[in-house]
Design brief:
The complex is a heterodimer of chains A (about 290) and B (about 280). With about 290 residues, chain A is mainly alpha-helical. In chain A, about 75% of the residues lie in helices and about 5% in strands. Chain A has a two-stranded antiparallel sheet with strand order 1-2. Chain A is globular, with a radius of gyration of 24 Å. In chain B, α8 (about 180-190) packs antiparallel against α9. Chain B is globular. The chains are: A mainly alpha (about 290), B mainly alpha (about 280).
Chain lengths: ~290, ~280
């Protein structure tokens, strides 16, 4: 059969054959699960008696009704962490591109280094750094930023610090790439035309690095909004995020329809927020 | 990027020399100070992991430094189940990296070397899993496994890891293939090499650094994955699952030892690869 195919046919079929394993794999283990998740969110019943598809839209009403504070907290924490990561990553990436000289590649390795240290273990390391008798708490207390009866662990600050830290490389790398690709002659042209250093930065460097900023923000915000590890290890009952709720609904309460409705709501919320902010950042000329 | 301050430019602008000098100082140094602080912030937890791997904890919790010891390093596999979990993680990571690299390289080749209908759709399909929070990926796989009847455990974890590694491999390999000079493959074809021979003898060796980088990335991602694994593991205990379970009752310091070893190995791989890539790039220039 194969030999009967003309060379021309074979060439047009080639890309599809090469893509087939990837497409099949993602259909089976990415798209199909998404469909079962969506179907599952409209089921009713219990784990012991079995679930049945009843088009139970009520799951969404009760999911959002019961857990909207957790959604709100996740979005707030993720937004603050994204902002903090941007404020740290931009100067860092800027320094690596423009000021680091021959240290450039070493610094790049250091930026991604945290990703090579186990996610859970490096998050647990923050419990040592922020410990109640630790040096950070001592310094903040002596500066009267923290009252003697206040601490950092089990607070929203710790959770946000953990989120910021864990996803910082995902902010730094895209900004680094966009700054590194930037045509340096444009900045020279701006300064040659008597733009001050700051003005050249604001009018040339910053707008041209915007794609890096946008993808960095997405790469931090999305995983941060769905995270439950930082809230679990660094937070308390009062800092639980929607990820914690989803995790416990699936793995402990075994309320699959409710948990699936929460997951779908999270996706919808994230996609909605991302589209709105993307559209706004495109229409309003930033700065 | 040295901004030359020619005398006529400072005369033309109405800046006092002092103000200009302060501004220049800030421009020159503040960014370095912030950058240095950010680097310390990035590396501090890693330093803590190393230090706490040399600690003899006072109680069950390894949070505060008590006493220096090398016991944790000489007795790595001391805590029950720790090294078994590392072994399982390594097996899954090897399998996931191998499968994802093969699937990913084929797809990346198709996406860079051919123009065909549905190409845009294929590109979007590759990116989609990366835009989903991991909780949702893990949870949706759990619903699939439960519905279809695939038992939770090592196989379920492996299938899931291959899924999310494919996208990363494709992105890395595509970037490498896009850098290659298309005239090289055209030359091979002109010399009557079959497409398969061209792929094997020209494209594959040239793309090797990118393929290796993709494979190492997949390996590292699979080895460290917790969130998706947590939903699909059943009773299987990978290294991250071990740490998660131990976090509730006190993490043994040997966990830090394992984390340091994994960190050093992956760092060594990454640094070697980037050195090799730089040397090769310099040689071919």
């Amino acid at each position: 059969m194969v030999s009967a195919l003309s060379a021309e046919r074979r060439r047009t079929l080639a890309p599809y054959l090469l893509l087939a394993p990837m497409v099949v794999w993602l259909l089976l283990f990415f798209l199909a699960p998404m469909v079962t998740l969506l179907m599952g969110s409209l089921q009713s019943g219990s784990f012991s008696e079995g679930f049945a598809f009843t088009f139970e839209v009520g799951n969404y009403v009760s999911a959002v009704g019961a857990y909207w504070p957790w959604f709100l907290r996740s979005i707030t924490y993720a937004a603050i962490a994204t902002l903090c990561a941007l404020l740290i990553a931009y100067p860092l990436a800027y320094m690596i591109v423009f000021k680091a000289g021959r240290w450039k590649y070493l610094l790049l390795v250091l930026v991604v280094a945290p990703l090579f240290a186990s996610f859970l273990v490096r998050t647990l390391a923050w419990t040592t750094i922020l410990a109640d008798q630790g040096i950070v708490v001592e310094v903040l207390r002596s500066l009267h930023i923290l009252a003697p009866d206040q601490w950092l662990l089990a607070s929203p600050t710790a959770v946000i610090a953990g989120l910021t830290y864990n996803f910082l490389p995902f902010m730094t790398l895209p900004i680094y790439v966009s700054l590194d690709r930037l045509d340096k002659r444009l900045i020279e042209a701006a300064t040659d035309l008597y733009a001050s250093g700051f003005r050249a930065f604001r009018r040339v460097t910053l707008p041209l690095s915007l794609p890096g900023i946008v993808s960095g923000c997405l790469l931090v915000f999305i995983p941060a909004a769905g995270d439950f590890v930082n809230a679990q290890l660094l937070g308390s009952v009062d800092t639980q995020m929607i990820g914690n709720v989803i995790e416990s609904q699936y793995l402990r309460a075994l309320d699959y329809p409710m948990a699936s409705a929460l997951s779908v709501s999270l996706i919808v919320l994230i996609i909605g927020l991302v589209t709105i902010s993307m559209r706004r950042s495109r229409t309003n000329e930033i700065l | 990027m040295s901004v030359s301050t020619a005398p006529e430019s400072s005369a033309r602008l109405n800046y006092s020399p002092l103000r200009e000098r302060t501004a220049a100082f800030f421009g020159r140094h503040i960014i370095r100070v912030i950058g240095a602080l950010a680097t310390v912030y990035l590396l501090l937890p890693i330093a803590v992991i190393v230090v706490m791997s040399l600690n003899k904890p006072a109680g069950r919790y390894n949070f505060t430094f008590n006493e220096f010891t090398l016991d944790n390093w000489t007795n790595m596999c001391g805590p029950y189940g720790l090294c078994d979990s590392v072994a399982l993680s390594l097996q899954i990571a090897l399998g996931a990296a191998l499968a994802a690299t093969i699937i990913g390289v084929l797809a990346a080749y198709a996406l860079t070397r051919f123009r065909f209908r549905g190409q845009g759709m294929a590109n979007i399909l590759v990116l989609l899993p990366m835009t989903m929070p991991e909780v949702v990926l893990g949870a949706s796989l759990l619903t699939l496994y439960v519905n279809v009847g695939i038992p939770l455990g090592p196989v379920a974890i492996l299938l899931a890891h291959i899924m999310f590694c494919i996208s990363f491999v494709i992105i890395v390999v595509k970037a490498r293939l896009a850098m290659l000079d298309p005239s090289l493959t055209e030359a091979a074809a002109d010399l009557y090499a079959t497409p398969w021979r061209t792929f094997r003898r020209v494209t594959l060796p040239l793309a090797a650094p990118g393929i290796l980088a993709g494979a190492v990335l997949a390996f590292a991602l699979s080895l460290d994955d917790f969130i998706i694994t947590n939903f699909n593991s059943g009773n299987a205990m990978t290294f991250p699952m071990y740490v998660w379970g131990a976090a509730k009752r006190g993490v043994p310091p040997q966990v830090n030892v394992i984390a340091v070893v994994i960190f050093l190995v992956v760092m060594a791989l990454a640094v070697t690869m980037s050195i090799v890539a730089t040397v090769r790039a310099n040689r071919s220039r």
